[in-house]
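Job type: complex structure
Entries:
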Amino acid sequence: MERAWSVAARNLRRNRRRNLATALAIAFGFAGLVVIGGYGNRVEQFLRTNAVYLQHSGHVTVFLENGLHKASAEPEQFQLNPVAQQKILAWAAQDRRVEFSARYLRGVGLAGNGCGTHPTRLLGMEQTALHRVLYHREVAKWSAEISRPVRGRWMDAYPELPQAVAVSAGLAVLLQKPRIHDEAVGLPPAPLILHCETEQRLDELGRDANVQLAAITYDGSLNAVDTEMVATFHPSETLGEDGTMYTSLSLLQTLFATEQVTYVGLFLHDAKDAAAVAKEITVALGKEGLAIEALPYDDERSKPYYVGTMAFLGAVVGFITVLVELVLALTVLGAMTLTILERTREIGTWRALGFTRRQMTALLVREALILSLLGLLAGLLLGLAGAVAINASGIRFAPPGVPGTIQLVIVPAAWICAIQAAIVIPGLCAAAWLVARAQVKRNLVDLLTSQTG
Amino acid sequence: MQIPHSSQLIVKVAFRNVRRNWRHSIAALATLAVGFLALALFQGYIEEFLRSQLDVIYSRIMIGEVMVQKKGAGTRQARINPEKYRIDEKEQQFLDRWIAANSGSVKTNVRTLLLVGMAHMGGSSAQMILWGYDVPEGRIARRKWSWNTWAGHPLRETEPSGTVLALGLGEILGCMATSEAPVLDPITAAPLPIERPFQCKQPSLMLTVTSGSGRTNALEAEIVGLTRAGSRDFDEHLLWVPLRFAQDLASTRAVSQYMIVLNQPKSGPMMRAALRVELQRAGIDLEVVDWIDTEGADLLRRGIDLLTVFRGLVFVVILIIAGAAVLTTMMKTVRERTREIGTLRSLGYLRRHILALFAMEAAMLAILAGGIGLLCSVVCTLAINASTITYKGGLLADAIPLRVGYSFSAYAWGFLFLSFVAVVAALLAARGVTRMRISEALSDG
Amino acid sequence: MKDGASDAADTAIEGSLRVDAMSEAFVRVEEVHKTYRLGEAEVRALRGLSLTLHKGEFTALVGSSGSGKSTLLNLVGCLDEPDRGRILIEGRDVAHLSDEERSHTRNRNIGFIFQSFNLVPVLDVFENVELPLLLHAELDAAARRERVEQALGDVALLDFRRHWPEKLSGGQRQRVAVARALVTKPLLVLADEPTANLDSETAAHLIDLMVELNQKRKVTFLFSTHDEKLMVRVPRIVRIRDGLTVDEAL
């Protein structure tokens, strides 16, 4: 039918108030979806950045086979020795999908201040990797707040201090160490023997940033090193706040008297390659006689919190999308019903002039499509404006599992909006088609003599 | 007070119009009903989630309706000087007397002592949070969770140095459950009382804690069972021992908390208030709290807050859309009855009578839709609860069954809000025509 | 019922006698102007029309479509306001009252009969006639019932009181409208082309009914029509053209 689109558009102008109400409903509904999708996108990116970068795991975490579960209990048997490390690093170096790789050693020890000790989780990492991870563009974009140290600078800023460590903020409080290295420079040194039982203790502990670290080596000996606290930070897990320390890899290997590492983290250019990289490295190194366990970041065994949260969030956002879609479809159904009822005689007239049922249905569906597209466009703009307003408001909230609060940020993603539009538009057109088809199928004489319009 | 005749007419005409023309409003009815359904299901889910989580948490970690601890016990200062933040023996005697005096209301009382330290097994070490508690009283407080182990058996009075490890902590140290058999009762969702096998590198482990004064104590404990701690974070840190063992380890007879479980949980606020008064009278500096208000409930509160925000957003969006649907329908209705409106005005009826008429019709429509929505939500709730869908929620260690509760507050608010939206939409739709010239309205159509 | 011309003459004489006997003005329309906007165009419906009605008169407004009949009825019936001029009912200027005052005046003093009957479809015959009485707080249900039954009796529809409007013929519906117009015992009844949707026989019967009620109840009637055949039944005819009265005949 010639000029079908222009006829459809002109028909929309005939009942402006109702069409405006319908378009506004579609706009609000889609705006809501844009905001929810933007929140989901932001959360996903934030959690992924945390899981990959801030938990220092990489997109693919490579353990010795069974190392994920047994490396803590039996480190000597289930951690990666230097030969294994070299093989993994060599494979990673030749794969273009790998941006960089890094070695990590995990352990548990006691952090002491000379008066008391607190158990702490330890993570030793290569300084170059630390820098690349914490200053990565993804981290800057999605997790800048919690990637920055609370006080001080990360260890890589102190190449002259091999004993530099970063201490979780809560642990620093427990150790009663109010000053980091830079703040303690120039202060009179604390006495060799501290007055732990007296109030003088606080002043003496505060004069330096020295933290003693003690641990049991793999062969059962007790070992200890002196460290210097150069930064405090919030770790990404809540329970880690009172007992986490980052050290250099060499320092931790010295403490545990080992050359092993717990895992190697592979950081990729594109997160979508994680599963493929994990599979390929496992096969490739298996052929070289090295049995490994390579886990992509979205594997529940490696990152149960991330996977569990994303599944839950996906279900909630999906449920909301379906609900809003249903309500929008019903709204369009209602509006089209009214429109078509009012134009029954007109439809009869068109049919009498020779237009087929299909052409009439298509005309009416076109009207619904134009209305939906206008509504969607308005909704997109409204949603984007809403996102800008929310982001500018600086609202903070406390999501589960994250220490303290983070700013509520909505980041609409084009692909999410496209998917939502791809769900909404056919639904609205289908609603219009149902109504149009039912009316157009009626007997011509009935249409022409109808009392309703 | 007699209702004016005109008001009776308005109700009568509104009702008859809705009854006559409901088919024309099907889409608006459906939209409102779906809005009601969404609110009811969402709120029902949140309420049931909170109820079931509290039920599990209260049982699993033996929380009583009356929780007594030292002021500031949850703070970091308490971690630095734990001794200063414990309930000493004198204070315990006072509490024991109070409990005895209220024995008719108290089901049981569980004393706990929380310590932070290290657990060592062979060459492995791990941070630990040690939870010492009164074993027989704890069994009563746990109710259907009295058998609270996934492998091995729960603590017994006959094993004074027994310990139950959280599965995550056990894994770190070298202990694993070796049976694949189902653990949870499908109806109660609590562990079945079966002793499942497990194996460890060594049968016992060394536990060390350091006091505030820097002294380190160590004791050996025998591993008798493995369990889940409920959240992933705690699963890698927690272990349980008898209270006396914990006290020996910390060289103290003090305790961290009293968990008083009542026969009538609803009397919690009253009992807490009563105990506060008694403590104040005795000059004892202890705080009496409800667990849900403590730092320990932070994770749960945050989860509920997040879900509530989602619910609010969904609700607002759906209300706006539903309002637009009703507006569209009412605009048509008003348009069709313009002449009728003119007639009523010509007979002396005022603008407010006309507005009231349409508002009444819209409210009736909303109530009808609410009734449909209520029926659908009850059916959906039954269907969901009868299904065996489970899901894992982020920090929760175990999969939990998908359940929706019957939220009477949601039903009431649903009726209220939908009626409000419908009335506002109707007033907007009818406002214009009531301002029309009567002669114009009469000659319409 | 008498035939045509002799009927008209008799009626005209009776009408003129009545006018002589009750010469006080009941409704006075003085130099009334009314203009409507229809899109871009302006339509001057009344251009300084003046008219006097006496109590108990039965007057027909005759004119072609667009002459201003309906506009005049709307203004006299307080359904609209004139741009200029006065409308006095029993000496009171109703042209510029507030909306509430005009509503009260319509409810208490004026009855309407419309071309399309304008019955409320969800109310039965009894309820439709009772409709204006519901605003009379001083009447209880028994008093209202008595009045409604009297009004329905006057139009011979008492047996139809529980029927729905959609089940009635055009003539019956219009008689219900007449009953509704009279149930409040108004001073003035206005009818805008009440016979337009009726066949000629029914239309004639309706006019006869209205004349009978006019004589029985002494209510002033003003109705519009363009049907010349009905003129013979009417004591006074006022012709309107282009918004002004051009002729009067008794």
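Summary: Chain B has a mean pLDDT of 88. Chain B has two domains: 5-57+300-442, 66-289.
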